Each structure stands twice: as C-alpha cells, then as structure tokens.
Amino acid sequence: MGSHDHATSDAIWIVKKYDPESHLVQFYKIEPQEKIGVVTVTCAELGAERTDIQVTYKYIALSKTGESFIDAFNEDAYEEFMGEWQKLLLKYFDSKDK
C-alpha cells in the first residue's frame, strides 16, 4: 500500500475553497509526478465541546505510482489513515488545553 506519511514526498498544498459560514475548507494536495488530491473538510457543531468532522479525499493519478496508491487506498486503508489522523489531532488539542 502507498504511504500516507506526509513527509514521504514533496507536496504543494493550495486552498481551493474556504467557506467559514458553512464550516468547509477544501485543499488541492499536489504531489508532482504522482497524484493530485482534493481534500474536503466539513465541520458541524454537536454541542459546546463536540464537533462532527467529515473528511473526504479524491485522487487523480499522474503516474503508475499514483495509480498504485489509489488502488491501495481502499475503505480499510482510509479508516486506518483517518484513525491515525484523529489521534494526532486529539493529542494536539489536548496539549492546547494545558
């Protein structure tokens, strides 16, 4: 499976859409020679201290390497990746509370 480690390849991040009223942000993640991703993040308040966050990724391959990554980025890989991402975010926000 392809790596989801953001440090494994050079990437260019561009904000595609920022809509604070809708609690939405979209980014292009361009990894030259590999793939282009569109990352969409939407947030919905669930309570005073709870937020529902939806994150979607859509990829376009630019090479065989990108195709291999996309082929391996199935539902299980996505769930594993998002679980890791969630742990990192919770750790970050917990450190801000102290």
Can you offer a commentary on this structure?
- The structure is a single chain.
- This protein has 98 residues and is an alpha+beta fold.
- It has one domain (12-96): Roll (Nuclear Transport Factor 2, Chain: A).
- 32% of the residues lie in helices and 42% in strands.
- Strand 1 and strand 2 (24-31) form a beta hairpin.
- It is globular, with a radius of gyration of 15 Å.
- The relative contact order is 0.15.
Q: Which terms summarize this structure?
A:
2 helices; 4 strands; single chain; alpha+beta; 98 residues; globular; 4-stranded antiparallel β-sheet; Nuclear Transport Factor 2, Chain: A
Poorly predicted regions: none
Shape: globular
Radius of gyration: 15 Å
Helix tally equals: 2
| Main sheet: strands, sense, barrel | 4 strands, antiparallel
Cα end-to-end separation: 37 Å
Summarize the structure.
With 98 residues, the chain is α+β, with helices and mostly antiparallel strands.
What's the SSE blueprint?
Elements: E1 12-19, E2 24-31, E3 35-47, E4 50-61, H1 64-72, H2 75-96
Antiparallel strand pairs: 1-2, 2-3, 3-4
